[in-house]
UniProtKB/TrEMBL annotation:
It holds the Pfam family HisKA_3. This is histidine kinase. It catalyses: ATP + protein L-histidine = ADP + protein N-phospho-L-histidine. Residues 194-281 form the Histidine kinase/HSP90-like ATPase domain. Keywords: ATP-binding, Kinase, Membrane, Nucleotide-binding, Phosphoprotein, Transferase, Transmembrane, Transmembrane helix, Two-component regulatory system. Its EC number is 2.7.13.3. The chain crosses the membrane at residues 21-38, 44-64. It comes from Pseudomonas libanensis. InterPro entries: HATPase_C_sf, HATPase_dom, Sensor_HK_TwoCompSys, Sig_transdc_His_kin_sub3_dim/P. One of its GO terms (molecular function) is phosphorelay sensor kinase activity. CDD domains: HATPase_UhpB-NarQ-NarX-like.
């Protein structure tokens, strides 16, 4: 994050210096042309060259500005997602290491007090210890949601299964996770995107859909990794531009798919549930390996 900020500052300084140089050239060219006009003499070759250099610099600056503006939205979207992921990891570490350690210390102190307090205070101390245990468990759950460490060790399928078990264990939702092929060798950024999109979809379902059944399907296709999420909830009317219409969760899912060059479509109607289809394309080398072999004639 600091490196990106440093790079942005460096580019801003460079553009500012370029503007100063162009302004200085324009002033010099104007003063030189004015001097030649007042002298009543034709423009010397040096002044003509100065005018040409000034025009070339202005044109180059305008072209660079248009190019920077053209690529700025995608660059900002990629940077925003990267910053969000880094911030999630930082918050997860602080919750697990700092707050988790403090709560563990408080829990040990409570247990120490419980062994030494008189009988009439035992119940109060027991309630305190139980509250600390529940709080510590919640902190660990939030830390795991912010930074799913099991993705690297367990893989995408096991991580999604563990997340669904934990998130839906106290609900009435019947869920199923289908993986028709082994998901080994999935690139990390693709696994993170699939995990986050499923995470957001399940959260939206619990908040708004009142669904009874959920299906999550992952499948290796020749063109990429396919993710399908279906529920039988209340449904809704998908926005054409989710970001502008306040559907931030849907906008975030779309941005994650776009960042990897993929696609995400949402099919839903009020009262008819919701279906999310995402496709993350393989990298060129992986796509070549996944393509069916050509038949020799």
């Amino acid at each position: 994050m600091y490196a990106s900020l440093k790079s942005l500052i460096a580019r801003s300084v460079f553009r500012s210096d370029a503007r100063r140089l162009i302004l200085a050239l324009c002033l010099c060219s104007l003063l030189a042309s004015l001097w030649a006009y007042l002298q009543g003499a034709p423009l010397p070759l040096l002044i003509l060259l100065l005018n040409l250099v000034t025009l070339a610099m202005v044109g180059l600056h305008q072209w660079c500005s248009r190019k920077a503006i053209k690529f700025q939205p995608q660059e900002l979207a990629d940077r925003l997602l990267q910053v969000q992921e880094n911030e999630r990891h930082r918050l997860s570490r602080e919750l697990h290491d700092d707050i988790g350690q403090l709560l563990t210390a408080a829990k040990l102190q409570g247990e120490w007090l419980q062994r030494r307090l008189p009988q009439d205070l035992q119940n109060h101390c027991s309630v305190l210890c139980n509250t600390l245990n529940e709080t510590l468990a919640k902190v660990r759950d939030v830390s795991a949601i912010l930074n799913p460490r099991q993705l690297a060790s367990l893989g995408l399928e096991a991580s999604l299964r563990a997340h669904l078990l934990k998130t839906l264990e106290n609900t009435q939702v019947c869920w199923s996770l289908e993986c028709q092929q082994r998901l080994t060798g999935i690139p990390e950024e693709m696994a993170v995107a699939a995990f986050r999109i499923t995470q957001e979809a399940v959260t939206n379902m619990l908040r708004h859909a009142q669904a009874h059944n959920l299906l999550v399907r992952l499948q290796r296709l020749p063109e990429g990794l396919s993710l399908v999420i279906c529920d039988d909830g209340l449904g809704f009317s998908p926005a054409t531009d989710p970001g502008r219409e306040g559907q931030r969760g849907m906008a975030g899912m779309t941005e994650r798919a776009d960042q990897l060059g993929g696609t995400l479509t949402v099919s839903s109607q009020p009262g008819k549930g919701t279906r999310i289809n995402a496709l993350f394309p393989w990298a060129p080398r992986a796509l070549k390996r996944a393509s069916p072999p050509k038949v020799l004639e």
